[in-house]
Each structure stands twice: as structure tokens, then as C-alpha cells.
Amino acid sequence: MIELAHKRALVTGAGKRVGAAVATALGRAQMHVAVHYHGSREGALETCLMIEQAGGRATPFAADLSDRADARKLVENVLATFGGLDLLVASAANFDRVELDQIDDAAWDRALALNLTAPFVLAHAAKDALRKAGGSIVFVTCTSATTPYRNYLPYVVSKGALQKMMRVLALELAPHVRVNAIAPGTVLPPADLDAAAIELLASRIPLRKIGTPDDIACAVIFLAQSSSITGAELFVDGGRVGAGNAGEGAV
């Protein structure tokens, strides 16, 4: 098992939701965490405070990951500040509901840019530092890459491609860098869902419950510490994919 204390991590999308939970959990493991945000500055500062209170160290970094140059600059800034990198967690993503007849170039490009291209650019920019550190990468994919959702075609395609990219990078970067993925199921359903809709979602899950961001954070730590796991996608979905349950997405 790899000791995480005093090592360096970059978590994207760490100003809210799953990214914030992952960054905070890494802080509890006493890592020095680069807390990336784009539009969630206040959330990122709150994440940094929680990390510091948990005994870790945190530094906020702003970047628009849909801009390749800005994504590369983010890695450069983190490396210049931290002097290296041990863990990259690519959590930032969009999750836009778009019906098939409403998909346009902008919707397609938005999903691919943030959910696929940005993780590749970050991993490519960080690979030498990660090789030097014997570090690892954890991508956040989605169960929809295995059991697709309706009404989320650009998102599902981007996550499916990210799943395949993880496996290829695991081969390309071995033996020095491990590359894995977490595939969340239903986590933090949209705020506009009523109690009946949430209950219906939970009823489709073998464990009969909605997941939490902390569930994802625990899985990230497991993969970050597991020295013999690479090229793996870990489902954190209450058993839904294993039971063969395709879904409609969050709604």
C-alpha cells in the first residue's frame, strides 16, 4: 500500500460536488492538494479550508480546462508550485442533458472538450512528473460508458472514450505510472428531482440507495494507494451495472 501523506495531488473540478469531496479526502490523508476550479472560486476556497482543517495542505488554481493551453498551464503552475506531482485526479466534467434532436455542434464540442480532451491534455502534460514520482492518474468516467443513458449522447460518448483512453494510457505509461478510473453511478441527483423521483432511482439500484461523493472519494484513495492496480475501472454504483440495469440517466 502506497503512503499518501505529504505527497502532492491535483484534483480538477474541486470547487464543488465530487471533486470537492475527493480533494478533501486527500487532505485528510495529509496530502498537499492543488484545488482546481473554473467558475467555483468560493467553493474552491471552502475546499481548501476543509483540507487545511483536516491536516492537509491546499493551494487553489484557476483554469478553463476546455482551453487546451489553459489546461497545460494549470499543470505547469502546479509543478512550479509543488515541485512535482504524485497523483492526478481528473474529476471536472459537464453533464448536460441534450435530447438527440437538440444536439448541435456546441453541445458536442462542449462535452468532448471538457470530458475527454482536457483529461488527456492534463495527463500528457503531467506524465513526466508522474513518471519521476512513480505516481498515478485516476479518471472519473461514468457507468453510462457501459450502460448508456438516453438524452445524454455527447456526455455518454465522451465518457466511453475516456474509459478507453484510460486503458491505453495504462499501457503507455507502465511501469512507472498507474492509470485507473472510477465509474460513479447515481451520485447527487439533480436538485429539481422530488422525493418520489429519487426513491424511484434508488429502487433500481441493488443496494437500494443513492451514492454519495464520499463514496467516490474512498474509491479514489483506494486506487491511489494500490500499487498493483492499473488499467482498471472501478464501479461505484450500488451494483447497478453488475445487475445489468441500463438506465435513463439522472432523469
The helix/strand class is alpha/beta
* Average pLDDT over all residues: 93
The low-confidence parts are none
The tally of strands reads: 7
CATH class: Alpha Beta
Relevant CATH superfamily: NAD(P)-binding Rossmann-like Domain
Helix content: 40-55%
Give the spatial strand order of the biggest sheet: 3-2-1-4-5-6-7
Strand-and-helix sequence, N→C? EHEHEHEHEHEHHE
Could you name the CATH topology? Rossmann fold
What's the architecture, going by CATH?
3-Layer(aba) Sandwich
Please tell me the total number of domains: 1
Q: Strand-residue fraction?
A: 5-15%
SS element count, helices: 7
Radius of gyration: 17 Å
Distance, first to last CA = 39 Å
Largest sheet: 7 strands, parallel
Q: Overall 3D geometry?
A: globular
